[in-house]
Design goal:
By secondary structure, the chain is an alpha+beta fold. The protein contains 15 helices and 33 strands. The chain starts with a strand and ends with a strand.
């Protein structure tokens, strides 16, 4: 089972032999354990025909889970008050080099900064450190980060740790949670390492409470194996072996892992990804079968010491708020989420969203939405768009609908041009509950002529998580380029990997081990595999930022995609139709479009647009000039005529 906990909806994907079952439920931001349990109950209904959570958990081999809790905590600035201890003489202003860094520093640390000199004698250091910690706690800090920097980073921080444990032993109620930066990363860049530590300390308490609560639910239900957390490096590991910072952005990475699997399976050299959910549109690129990564990842505009895949999140989703600013339609970044949701949900929302617009355009059907379990109210949608878009612009409802779609598609297409300027021969992978609806419009704006809408589009990030393995990654600076330097680092990392994989239930001999040297060359990051002789090539000994990456991976079962052998056949007909209002030269025209049920289409079948393809959780609009066919994996392949 793979679960993707999004801002609006929580998705589950169950691989049961050759079958795949899906489930969705609204996210409950006040208590994420509630939607975690609820989506498992919904999944059990799909598997057994009735709610049998205990039976599902008795049978399950692995549960891989991704949550947006960390992302939301950073965005909303909800977390502990941090205190920061620096080396005497360090300047905290170097941590506020741009607006994002300044804003986050003010929100998480503020003036709770103190200094110590690790060169003091033990007695002097004990007195100074006690004073510093008491001052920070009195100023409101409830977690501390120690980031001393310097050539003796690890030794100096360990000296401070020894003194702190003497004065604040962990068995006492007054124990102070302290994170020492070198234990998270030995990155020589003080700003990157300090920000990584601050962010991890900020995310840690909420993540720990929630994930252990979720694991306790499974334990109480007697699940056979512990909960696995899907991380933003594409790996999965136990809660107790997961770094809080690695949960940030893990949901979008799940979509990228699925995209990587499809790109390799279908032989796509460049695959653009467009994941439109309720709150955001996440866009990325799979290039030559690999997910693009930044060696030093950026969280908002803050560089950290861990790699992150290049996924850009836009505030443009099915629940993003439309408003008029300076006479123009603005999309997001605010979202009404799943509660109260778009106005048409009837839960009290009064803001205009693209979901309301697509309902009034007829692309969405108010009776079949969300598998028919959520009836949409067109009158509420109309009132919200008139009040928030049409009246401020001084235009009719029809004109407002056209302008909303143009603004929405334009925002997404413009962002995709920035992340992938060379679109020649690229294909677009459109997923998320709202991705297929706008796929052709966005592709037309980009000049892209092929689109893949995966069968699991509505739960594709959850589906993609299922391609991950249990793995642990390590990264260490290589300061000694002599004969034994590299082998000493590899030996140290091997000991850590042996211990961590043992905690996962595996011996290191069962795992695939990758060892890589990374370095900076001419301002660009590069990497090279470590040779069996453990020697550093002469040309690399003088390279900048020379580091060792070590990854141990225990492969676990994945879903197996079918070879695509069925050729597209003759056009398929349907007796179903849908009344849709399509934009023609900036004006809306009424049309009756053929409506195809995705689950009833067979491999090789297809038709030319304009048409609508719909299934339980997504709707795909195929305008004139496009055609679709279904392949052997039941993915929709759309091509420009």
């Amino acid at each position: 089972i793979s679960i993707d906990n999004g801002g609006t909806l929580t998705d589950a994907c169950v691989i049961y032999g050759a079958k795949v079952f899906r489930a969705k439920t609204l996210t409950t931001p006040h208590d994420l354990t509630q939607c975690f349990v609820q989506v498992l109950k919904e999944a059990s209904k799909r598997v057994y025909g009735e709610e049998k959570l205990a039976a599902l958990l008795e049978e399950v081999d692995y549960i891989r889970y991704s949550t947006t809790q960390g992302t939301n905590a950073v965005v909303q600035r909800k977390g502990p008050r941090l205190g920061l201890i620096l080396r005497k003489g360090q300047d905290p202003k170097k941590l506020a080099r741009n607006k994002d860094e300044k804003d986050l520093f003010d929100a998480t640390v503020g003036d709770r900064v103190a200094y110590v000199d690790p060169g003091l004698s033990d007695e002097q250091l004990e007195s100074a450190l006690t004073t510093v910690i008491n001052e920070l706690m009195s100023a409101g800090a409830n977690r501390l980060v120690v980031s001393l920097g310097g050539a003796n980073l690890a030794a100096d921080e360990m000296k401070v740790k020894h003194v702190a444990l003497l004065r604040y032993p962990r068995h006492l109620l007054g124990a102070v949670p302290i994170l020492y930066s070198h234990q998270l990363s030995d990155d020589g860049d003080d700003a990157r390492r300090t920000w990584s530590s601050l962010l991890n300390a900020f995310l840690h308490p909420a993540m720990e409470r929630f994930l252990y609560n979720a694991e306790n639910v499974l334990r109480d239900a007697r699940a056979r194996n512990p909960l696995l957390i899907f991380c933003n490096d594409g790996t999965s590991s136990r809660v107790a072996k997961t770094v809080a910072l690695k949960t940030w952005g893990s949901g979008p990475r799940g979509g990228m892992e699925g995209a990587k699997a499809l790109a390799q399976h279908y032989g796509k050299n460049t695959l653009l990804t467009m994941d439109i959910g309720g709150t955001t549109t996440d866009i990325g690129v799979v290039d030559r079968g690999e997910v693009r990564e930044q060696r030093w990842g950026s969280l908002e505009d803050i560089q950290i010491s861990f790699p992150l895949c290049e996924v850009e999140s836009l505030g443009a989703g099915g629940s993003s708020v439309f408003k008029v600013v300076d006479g123009k339609v603005q999309v997001g970044p605010e979202s009404v989420g799943g509660a109260p949701g778009p106005a048409c949900f009837g839960y009290g929302g009064k803001e205009a969203t693209i979901t309301d617009a697509y309902l009034l355009l007829g692309i969405l059907d108010g009776d079949s939405y969300f598998g028919g379990t959520l009836k949409l109210d067109s009158e509420r949608a109309k009132a919200a768009i008139m009040e928030n878009v049409a009246k401020p612009l001084g235009v009719s409802l029809d004109e407002a609908l056209v302008k909303m779609e143009q603004a929405y598609v334009g925002k997404i297409a413009e962002a995709m041009k920035q992340i992938a300027p060379n679109l020649k021969d690229a294909a677009l992978l459109a997923f998320g509950g709202a991705g297929p609806m706008s796929a052709c419009r966005v592709a037309d704006a980009l000049g892209v002529k092929e689109i893949i809408v995966p069968r699991m589009a509505a739960v594709f990030s959850a589906f993609g998580i299922g391609f991950s393995d249990i793995a642990h990654s390590y990264d260490a600076a290589l300061t000694d380029t002599g004969e034994k330097g590299l082998s000493d680092v590899i030996d140290r990392l091997t000991v850590r990997a042996t211990r961590d994989m043992f905690a996962e239930g595996f011996d290191l001999s069962e795992c695939a081990v990758e060892k890589t040297l990374s370095f900076s060359q001419n301002g660009e990051q590069a990497a090279r595999p470590v040779n069996g002789d453990m020697k550093i090539p002469d040309g690399l000994k003088s390279a900048q930022d020379l580091r060792v990456q070590f990854r141990a991976t225990k492969a676990i079962p994945h879903f197996v995609l079918k070879q695509d052998e069925t050729k597209a056949g003759k056009a398929t007909s349907t007796a179903l139709a849908r009344a849709v209002r399509l934009s023609d030269g900036g004006k809306l025209a009424d049309s009756s479009l053929p409506l195809f049920r995705h689950e009833e289409l067979m491999p090789g079948q297809g038709a030319a647009g304009p048409a609508v393809v719909e299934e339980e959780y997504f709707t795909c609009l195929i305008p004139a000039g496009w055609k679709f066919s279904v392949n052997d994996n039941h993915d929709l392949v759309l091509q420009k005529n």
